[in-house]
Amino acid sequence: MSDLESEVKTVRKLAPDYFRNPKDYFWRWVEKGEIVEWRSGNTLCYREELARVLRGLVEQGLPPLASVLLLLAACADAWSEPDGGPTVVKRVWEHMPAEADDPSEAVLERQMRHALQFLDVVRALPANLRTGEPKLHLFREVFSAQAPQIGVAMASALLDEWASGRSDKVLHFSRSPVTRRVLYNELACLAHSLNRFPSTDALALHLRTGLGKLPESLPEPLPAPVFAETEPLTPTATDLLDQLAQDPRTAGLARLTQQLVAALRIPLHARGASDQPIGGVSDVTNRGNLDRLLLSELAHDDDVLLARLVNNEALYLRREAPPRPDVKPRAVLLDTTLRMWGVPRVFGLAAALAWARNSRQSQQPAPVAAFALGGQVTTPLDLDTFDGVVAALAQLDPAPHAGPALLEFGRSQPATAGDCLLITDAQLLHQPAFARQLAEAAPALRFLLTVDRSGELQLYHYQNGHRTLESTARYNLEETLFSAAPAPRRLLQFPPPTEGPAFSQQVPAPLFFPVTGLRVSAKNTFYAASIGVLSITDKQRVLFWPGKDIGARELLPGIESGAYHFGADGASRVYVLVSARRLLRIYAFFIATEEVEMVDLVTEVALPDDALPVVFEDGCYHVQWAEGTLVFDCRSWEIRDRRNTIFPVHMPSAFRPDHGHIKRRINNGFNVLHRLNSLGVNKQGALVIEGHELVLVSNLRLLTQELRLANKNLSAVPAEKLAHLVQIDPKGFPLLANEQLLFRRFAWPDGSEALLDPRGLLHLHSADATVPEITLILVLGQPTAAWTADGTVCGSPYFTGPNPARCLSVPDFNRQYLQRFIAQLG
Fold first, then answer.
1. Which residue intervals of 311-446 are DSSP H helices?
2. Cα dist. 755→287, 407, 748, 764 in Å?
3. Which residues does 768 contact at the CB level (< 8 Å), separation at least 6?
4. Beta-strand (E) ranges in 31-164?
5. Cα three-residue angle 216-773-192, rounded to 5 degrees
6. pLDDT tens digit string along 552-596?
7. What is the DSSP letter of 558?
8. Which of 266, 645, 660, 729 is most buried when burial is the number of CB atoms within 10 A of its CB?
């Protein structure tokens, strides 16, 4: 049989398998293979449109048909309808047969969510980018990062076979159902495209220009300074609360005010319908709604009326605009007499501050004036400045109540007092003398707010001389006002080096690290299922792995050598006590924020000559020394006792270094290349690192391309025949705070350089200033990852993280960065 006959036979067998719909899938053929519809019965696309798109993808191979159909559906206007694509696709995997190698439901759900999010990005594109000829450009760009299911050599022949109609007779016969693994792979390219194009603007920019972002414009020239006298700005309520919170004297007042701001709501003015001058007609216009059409227009016959409506000649009534709501100035009257001394005074002042802030930040801001009510006199208060608030706290009057001052205020300022708030003690409402004077002053009040030492607050509203209760709230004043605020945390700061590779100057590191120089044991590793794994390497680096699907974070570049004792709070913190000669330190690692806190206790135990016995129990470190037991509480971050007579019984560690899942968490099957003697470029233009060629490998299972360091080929060209071969600098030198980490340098004749990083990295610096610095992770046996100084990453999610901010496909990264670096070498 000739090669041509063999290819024809293969194509005729492959065409039905590629184009037939699987059983119980989200799409199917109908109308004798002329229409593709959703399982719900709605039309997805027509055969002619699908054929045109597939013809446009022939030059790069055909992706899975399901991915093409989903992208076609997202380009249509019916994508977001209630019975559209997202609803059908979300339900399709629930009845799929399960296989041994299927991804978990959580992994499949995340893949589906990312794919649907990207399809929503496509749906939001302007119509001129997802229809017509630009649609083909969209498909080529989306599927360019995916290894094709049907190669370029057979794609055209496969479409010719389908166009001939010979396979149409089997299209209405469903093939066997797909598994969840197949669905996961068919969604892979769409899900990964969300990393490349996280927003509609990013995708539209790429389709129009081919760029990830537009070049930055030149900075505008600074305007000439204008020297003029201006009035000082009045601090805002937020600024004032910040100032109060920073001062120990007023920190409790600030906390209580913040709670009251959220609780106090100022009732709006209520008006009767007859009070509003609304309902009249102010004008006649040729624009409006049909319900305002002049009745005289209906006298025309239908054709004339329609013509007048179309030509904007018909007349409509224009209603009178409603008036803007009245904004009245507000007054706050703060009782400072005898019953408001102590806690009620602070409670009442906090309520006044909250009332003033809500008044100024409402939709209709109102000016607020504050006054202190004494027994006989009224004194203005300044609630806009820190000094004014402190002065208000000092306002005290020994009178039994403020009834006389309240009456005098109502008589002297009736306009201002027409919308004012009185803040006083709740018990005064039951005192006959004050209650009588309060009733006389009621016409001048609109609100009454009472406070109580128990923490109860009540807001009353005056309407037509009658008082009604609007709201009630209760606060824990003891906790809010007098609880000591936690001491400010003093976190360790690790400023990035000013010299060295760009990767080391990023905080946090833009890639996750591979594990190097670690021999797992109970002496250097801590594990908790709810937290993860924390280990200290031979070079005293502190690394953390939250799970087995992601690499390590470097929490501390260098920790002292000594005996390590681990502890944790069970959720978010890991503690490490380091004990050695003249050394006793405790580190707290905050896993969520990757922050580190340290306390030095060596002066508390009289400079020990050797490591001290240590036990971690109930959140505390117990350190045995000459004069007893030092107890340090990690939860409050303070010493509880210095000379305790009880030292807890030491329990053996529950950690076992040979536990299988511990090791899988810190290494997913790779080896790190950390000793290099040669680096160069072969005749095919590929980078060769210690005999390992950096290649692009197609992953047929995931339909993606990966970046790998291939295994050494013993029959390959000898190292001395490699083009641009450079020799390693035998003298290592430190570049980081941890001086045990020694870098080694390569140099090319053109000025390009490479730095071997002992943490398992290689940094490439090109002599061409337009090529950003590139960092490669030197792992063998697994897909690797890379980063550039402009923030772009590519490669394995184990090192890039699940959703990097700026991610390129491996072919794009190779073309835009690696090949430009290699081309500079000549």
1. 343-360, 386-393, 403-412, 414-417, 432-441
2. 72, 83, 12, 7
3. 820, 821, 824
4. 35-38, 43-46
5. 75
6. 999 999 999 999 999 998 788 999 999 999 899 999 999 888 889
7. -
8. 266
Quote the percentage of the chain above a pLDDT of 70. Answer: 85
The predicted pLDDT at position 172 comes to: 63
Tokens of 209: 């220009």
Give the C-alpha separation, 411 to 314, whole Å: 58
Contacts of 289 (CB under 8 A, 6+ apart): 316
| Cα 620–chain centre separation | 34
When pLDDT is cut at 50, 70 and 90, the band that residue 226 belongs to is very low
First to last CA, the chain: 47
**Backbone phi, psi, residue 744, to 5°:** -130, 145
Instruction: Report the C-alpha gap between 705 and 121 in whole angstroms.
Output: 23
DSSP state of 172: T
Which distant-in-sequence residues (6+ apart) come within 8 Å of 781 by Cβ?
669, 670, 671
Confidence band for 253, pLDDT divided at 50, 70 and 90:
confident
Query: Based on C-alpha coordinates, what's the Rg of the chain?
Result: 37
Q: How far is CA 665 from CA 309, 370, 520, 660, 761, in A?
A: 72, 62, 12, 9, 20
Return the number of other C-beta atoms located less than 10 Å from residue 730's C-beta: 8
Sheet of strand 595-600, all strands in order from the earlier edge strand to the far edge: 563-568, 573-580, 583-590, 595-600
- The rounded distance, in Å, linking the Cα atoms of 332 and 774 is 64
Q: Is residue 455 within 8 Å of residue 475, measured between CB atoms?
A: yes
| Calpha distance 709→689 (Å, rounded) | 8
CA-angle at 482, arms to 478 and 488, nearest 5° = 135
Q: Residue 397 in contact with residue 374, Cβ under 8 Å?
A: yes
**pLDDT, position 420:** 86
Q: Which residue has the tokens 């399901």?
A: 66
Report residue 623 CA to chain centroid gap: 41
Asked if 84 contacts 27 with a C-beta cutoff of 8 angstroms, the reply is: no
Structure tokens at 494: 């690790």
In which residue are the tokens 């980018």 written?
129
Which class for 597: exposed (0-12), middle (13-18), buried (19 or more C-beta within 10 A)?
A: middle
In the predicted structure, residue 188 carries a pLDDT above the cut 50 = yes
Q: How far apart are CA 328 and CA 417, in angstroms?
A: 10
Tokens of 780: 């063998």
Domains assigned to the chain: 3-209 (no CATH), 238-267+325-480 (3.40.50), 280-319 (no CATH), 515-662 (2.130.10.10), 670-824 (no CATH)
The number of C-alpha atoms within 13 Å of 782 and in the hemisphere containing its C-beta is 19
Residue 270 has pLDDT above 70, yes or no: no
Q: 543 has which bridge partners?
A: 535, 554
Residue 736 CA to residue 255 CA, distance in Å, equals 43
Instruction: Please choose, from the candidates 593, 596, 509, the residue with its C-alpha nearest in 3D space to the C-alpha of residue 552.
Output: 509
pLDDT for 488 beyond 50: no
Tokens 């602070």, located at residue: 346
Interatomic CA distance for residues 460 and 471, integer angstroms: 7
Interatomic CA distance for residues 594 and 555, integer angstroms: 6
Bridge-based pairing state of the strands 368-373 and 378-381: antiparallel
Q: Residue 506 and residue 508: Cα distance in Å, rounded?
A: 6
Q: Are 532 and 543 in contact (CB under 8 A)?
A: no
DSSP 3-state of 244: helix
Q: What is the spatial distance between Cα 142 and Cα 700, in angstroms, rounded to a whole number? A: 18
Which residue has tokens 């690290």? Answer: 513
- pTM given for the model: 0.50
